[in-house]
Amino acid sequence: MKKAVSIFLTMVMVFSLTACGTAESQEISDSSSTEESVVEFEQVASDGDSLDTESPESEEESKVLVAYFSWADNAILADDVDAVASPSVIPPGNVQQLAEWVQEETGGDLFSIQVTEPYPSDWDECLARANEERGNDSRPELKEAVENLEQYDTVFLGYPNWWYGVPMALLSFLEQNDLSGKQVYLFCSHGTGGLANSVELITEALPDTEISDQIFDCYEEDAASSKEEIQSWVRELGFQSGESETAGEGSWQIAVQFGENTVIYELNDGTAAASLYDQLPLTVEVEDYSTNEKIFYPAQGLDTSDSPLAQSGAGTLAYYEPWGDVVFFYDDYNENPSLFELGQAVSGADLISEMAGTITLEAAE
């Protein structure tokens, strides 16, 4: 009997130890699992808020699109087309030329809006078809749409004034390409009708798009000579080509400071501009002259041996060689064979007329 009890007690002890060992093993296993989970969670937390430990790809840098409709890109030229009577149909057309200059200044991508059925190269016949399309509220079929439109945050949109509005093909483009959420700038070549109803038509077609009220427009006969004007407009909007931004790593921009105001000029690569830059920093007294300019006299005259003549309007920085004065133009001016351009205002052009007293010129950072 004692032997049986002993055997029984031995079996109970073995069972208890086995059960205890199993419980301890389970606790150790659970503890280990918990510690691993904590370590894993801490690793995720240290990598960032997301549970995805892979770094997100960097977003593509936004780009500028310069889209335009030009008669020259949408007409089949007849052998006897009159280049004098219909200059805008001879490549590059008026709007096409303006668009190329905008593209040159912004470094954006150029896109020509083209119809599948070309317009007549005779202006009267083209006008008749344009009027018919307008009367029918037509949407001419286009050859293609813009690829990867989502990569563009800014769109420059160029067009001619047709029948006191826009070519209906432009409305086809606006309806087929979603520009919502983008910043749009308009430029237009026109006759005596000016912008007419074109801005209203475009605004109506783009209800969810921000359209700037800073619009460039010119008469069609002036388009071919409007390079400086339209590129100055682009710069005033805050755009400039990659080439301009990297030239000399920004060493060719100067800041003109007066009071709490600053005007930034981008200098050209002429010898006169280089001569001025070499004298920086300068502290001088600015003077009023006439009704469109401010002037000062640098300590040393500028070398004009290889410098362009001044041909632009407001925002031009120039040098008048006979008097030896540097000129800040804030309104249009007459060309002069002794007036040399140094550069153009790219920021703060509207402040030039307020310059007074002591000003400082230094290299822009």
Percent range of helical residues: 25-40%
Principal-axes shape call: elongated
- The number of distinct β-strands equals 16
The stretches of 5 or more residues where confidence is low (pLDDT under 50) are 1-60, 80-89, 242-250
Could you give the order of the helices and strands? HEEHEEHEHEHEEHHEEHEEEEEE
Q: Rg to the nearest angstrom?
A: 35 Å
Q: Which sequence of strands runs across the widest sheet?
A: 9-10-15-13-14-12-11-16
Structural classification: alpha/beta
**Largest sheet report:** 8 strands, antiparallel, barrel
- Fraction in beta strands: 15-25%
How many DSSP helices?
8
Overall mean pLDDT = 81
Biased composition (Acidic residues): 49-59
Domain Cyclophilin-like: 257-361
Domain Flavodoxin-like: 93-235
Region (Disordered): 26-59
Written overview of the protein:
The protein has 365 residues and is α/β, with parallel strands linked by helices. The chain contains eight helices and 16 strands. The chain has helices at residues 2-47, 94-106, 123-135, 168-176, 198-205, 227-236, 242-246, 271-278, and strands spanning 63-68, 75-76, 109-112, 119-120, 152-160, 183-190, 210-211, 216-219, 253-258, 261-267, 282-289, 293-296, 316-320, 325-329, 339-347, 357-363. The strands form three sheets. It has an eight-stranded antiparallel β-barrel. Strands 1, 3, 5, 6, 7 and 8 form a six-stranded parallel β-sheet that branches. Helix 2 crosses helix 6 (227-236). The protein is elongated and about 65 Å long. The protein starts with a helix and ends with a strand. Residues 1-60, 80-89 and 242-250 have low confidence and may be disordered.
